[in-house]
Amino acid sequence: MSEATSADPRRRLPAVDRLLADPLVRRLEASYGREPVRVQARRALDRLRRRLAGEGAPPSADEVAALPDEIARALEAELGRPLRRVLNATGVLLHTNLGRAPLPREVAARLPELVTASCDLEIDLATGRRGDRAGRVSALVAALAGAEAAIAVNNNAAALVLALATFAAGREVVVSRGELVEIGGSFRIPEILAAAGARLVEVGTTNRTHLADYERAIGPATALLLKVHASNYRVSGFVAEASPADLAGLARARGLPLLCDEGSGLVRPRPEPQLAAETSWSELLSAGCDLVCGSGDKLLGGPQAGLLAGRAELVERCRRHPLYRAMRLDRLRAAALDGVLRRHLAGEPLPLDRLWPEPAAHRARLERMAARLAAAIVPADAFVGGGAAPESPIPGEALALPGSDELAARLRAGEPPVVGYLKGGRLLLDLRTVDAEDDGVLADAVRRAREGVA
Asked: DSSP 3-state assignment of 182?
């Protein structure tokens, strides 16, 4: 070996196999596989070799120690980071960016036994013959909302497309201009109608639509009347709209079905002031709506799903449509939905109930956490989220930490990540969207973030 070769600073770098044996690097294999980790390890070493060759200096201990983090960042950039559990302290329970409705712990705890082995998803165990996948959902939703039948698909957009494709392909659908909404992810009612092969007939104006507007628009090509929940916006002032009951009467008189896109999955009325004005499925069906659709992962508190409920003969026609098979639920979501619907029937608490805690107990919880975190307790509004009651804050209190963007970033980078919000130069953490069982985890995460440990 020549003196020049032995003096080459690049020879002081660890070999690839030695780097792969580092516990921090080996841990990455569980998420990305051995070969992708090996590729990124080689690339990281090559980058450092090229730099050292230009500088003519040996690698520092810090540079070698930083290699596992560099490999992890490269893998995340190329293949994405695995999903992580997050503590939601934003005060918005149905936070779209954080997965919307959290499942009840009791429902989630039962899922492993139903998905790590076989289950009776579509078999009648009494006869040994093929069963009805939609049977459980149909029976449970019917009992909850007073519907004759129901089916579940993968989200509310799918439920709406399925109903429109079943009844209105190549025909006209009458909708108020004030209900041609766009919600998150560029979900636009006109585009949904077009995708289903239906022709949109707009009636009324943005702020005022009367029953007579619908009457004048109905013709030989009309397939159904559609009423859409305004979701995450409101028009106020000089406004008017036809009620579901009035539209149902008109639809019956003209021999047409009325489809109501409620959107939020409020199957039964709720007494809280922020939700009392929201029209539930049971109320829509009682008012004469023929079909109602909505989301499973919003006010229902379940997994992502689209529920379609109403008259049995109409639901059955949707179930027989070829699109239904392409949209139906897999067993993981079917199992989660089954568990959540049964909690509704039994009157068991759901995570949504955290937004309205018992005042004395919640105040005691805030005081314990404030003392633990050296935090202040300040007035703060929570929100339902998910497009429900967007203008109806839920008054209350939250913890306030002295902090800025840096503390918020450290909390998001921690394990588990914590997401709060900045207001008035302080970082606010709303415990109403945090399970009380996670208070200790939250306190430890804040402590580490304050110490600068991600």
From this structure: strand
Is it the case that residue 173 has pLDDT exceeding 70? yes
Q: Which residues contact 375 (CB under 8 A, 6 or more apart)?
A: 369, 399, 400, 401, 429
Q: How many domains, in total, are found in the chain?
A: 3
Identify whether residues 254 and 399 lie together within a single domain: no
Cβ neighbors of 2 (< 8 A, separation 6 or more) are none
Residues 70 and 122 in one domain: no
Q: Indicate the helix (H) or strand (E) that contains 86.
A: none
Domain encompassing residue 315: 105-346
240 and 174 in a common domain: yes
E strand map for 318-408: 376-385, 394-402
Write out pLDDT tens, residues 310-363.
999 999 999 999 999 999 999 999 999 999 999 999 999 999 999 999 999 999
Kindly state whether residues 333 and 392 are assigned to the same domain: no
The pLDDT value recorded for residue 11 is 64
Tell me what the pLDDT averaged over the chain comes to: 92
Sign of CA dihedral 336, 341, 346, 352: positive
For residues 333 and 306, what is the distance between their CA atoms, to the nearest angstrom?
Answer: 11
Q: Is there a single domain that holds both residue 21 and residue 133? A: no
* Cα–Cα distance measured from residue 288 to residue 247, given in angstroms and rounded to the nearest whole number: 8
Q: How many CA atoms lie within 13 A of 339 on its CB side?
A: 19
